[in-house]
Amino acid sequence: MANISVFNIEGKEVGSIELNDAVFGVNVNEHLVHMAVVAQLANKRQGTQKAKTRSEVSGGGRKPWKQKGTGHARQGSTRSPQWKGGGVVFAPTPRDYTINLNKKEKRIALKSALTSRVLENKFIVVDDFAMGEIKTKKMQQTLNNLNVKKALVVCAENEKNTVLSVRNIYGVKAASPKTINVYDILKYNTVVASKDAVKTIEEVYA
Q1: How open is the CA angle 62-67-70, to the nearest 5 degrees?
Q2: Which domains does the chain have, with CATH numbers?
Q3: Separation between Cα atoms, residue 191 and residue 185, nearest integer Å
Q4: Which stretches of sequence are listed as region Disordered (predicted)?
Q5: What CA–CA distance (Å, rounded) separates 47 from 96?
Q6: Which of 34, 43, 55, 111 is packed most tightly, with the most Cβ within 10 A?
Q7: Is 22 helix (H, G, I), strand (E, B) or coil?
């Protein structure tokens, strides 16, 4: 098992913790990590873009002029794409961008992302955030003490004050152990987790 240091909110080392290899010590599967990120971004897309083709725009029922003898190019409708008010060629239509991964693939991808952060020394464990009140300034000072800027803060479900204190800090996002995802783990430079959050992650994903 990997053994990493535990820090307090002042940035001082106060102990260590052993991480479960079943979650934080797996073989990193880069392909599944990539697929998980692609799927998450694709599933955010609404797919509601729509434009009308020449068969859907109103008007243009009759031929604007006779086929021959006018000196103009032949035209069959004033709603052809080259006309003002005409339809769009190959117009976009609503579609579903959803990409599905099975549960086993999602789990392996998440474990791979967490393992990569541990291997890169970008996984920091905090003894306790100790947020007795909602205080953004105090949370910012804690991150400064840990020498962290762009971070994903993972805290236990009952640490609501920590979540609210993080909310207004630029480049920092709060998450619970059950809502972490591959995209956020990779997007933010460092994962900062409380000891309770680490235990929950190991219980849920091991």
Answers
A1: 110
A2: 2-45+98-205 (3.40.1370.10), 48-96 (no CATH)
A3: 7
A4: 44-87
A5: 6
A6: 111
A7: helix
**Predicted TM-score (pTM) of this structure:** 0.81
Alpha helices in 120-178 (DSSP H): 136-145, 160-166
Task: Please name the amino acid found at residue 101.
Answer: L
Tokens for 86? 């005409």
Task: Provide the phi-psi class of 59: left if phi over 0, else alpha when psi is between -120 and 50, else beta.
Answer: left
Instruction: Express each pLDDT in 163-189 by its tens digit.
Output: 999 999 999 999 999 999 999 999 998
DSSP state of 47: -
The radius of gyration of the chain from alpha carbons, rounded to an integer in Å, stands at: 27
E strands, the chain, in order: 2-7, 13-19, 123-126, 151-154, 172-175, 190-194
